[in-house]
Amino acid sequence: MILEDKKKGFLNEGIKIFSYIYRLDFEVKLRKLNDLMKDGLINEEEFKRKREEILSEKW
Predict the structure, then answer these.
(1) Alpha carbons 34 and 21: distance in angstroms, whole number
(2) Cα-flanking dihedrals φ and ψ of residue 6, to 5°?
(3) Sign of the Cα pseudo-torsion (36, 33, 45, 38, in order)
(4) Which of 2, 13, 31, 46 could form a disulfide with 42 if both were Cys (CB 3.0 to 4.6 A apart)?
(5) What's the CA gap between 5 and 21, in Å, rounded?
(6) What's the predicted TM-score (pTM) here?
(7) How far apart are CA 1 and CA 25, in angstroms?
(8) Cβ neighbours of residue 44 under 8 Å, at least 6 residues apart?
(9) Calpha distance 23→45 (Å, rounded)
(10) What is the pLDDT of residues 11-59, one digit of tens each?
(11) Which residues lie below 8 Å from residue 28, measured CB to CB, with a gap of 6+?
(12) SS3 breakdown of the chain: % helix, strand, coil, rounded to 5?
């Protein structure tokens, strides 16, 4: 019983860590996209289209 509880605890911690890393990746994508537009490498239309694509991802 105690071993099963420990396994569940490790699994829950792993899920929390994965979720945190995925959210960071999501934030990094949006910030990079914003930088691309600020630097003139993509236009506003391209920015909006890609931003919507990123925002529609499950996170």
Answers:
(1) 20
(2) -65, -40
(3) negative
(4) 46
(5) 24
(6) 0.62
(7) 36
(8) 37
(9) 25
(10) 778 777 767 666 778 889 999 999 999 999 999 999 999 999 999 987 6
(11) none
(12) 85, 0, 15
Angstrom CA distances, 36 to 17, 31, 41, stand at 29, 9, 5
Who contacts 42 (Cβ-Cβ below 8 Å, separation ≥6)?
33, 36, 50
Cα gap 37→29, rounded to integer Å:
13
Amino acid at the residue 40: G
Angle between helices 2-38 and 44-55 (to 10 degrees): 170
| Tokens read off for 10 | 């490790």
Q: What is the pLDDT of residue 14?
A: 76
Q: How many helices (H) and strands (E) does the chain have?
A: 2, 0
Alpha helices (H) in the chain, listed in sequence order: 2-38, 44-55
